[in-house]
Amino acid sequence: MKSLGSPCNCSRLRLSFNAKCPETPVLNWLHAKADHLNEELGCLKLFFAAFLAIAMLVVAWLVQNYLSVDSAIIVGAFIVISVVTYLLVWIIRYVYKRIEQLGDF
Question: What residue numbers bound the domain in which 39 lies?
Answer without folding.
Answer: 10-103
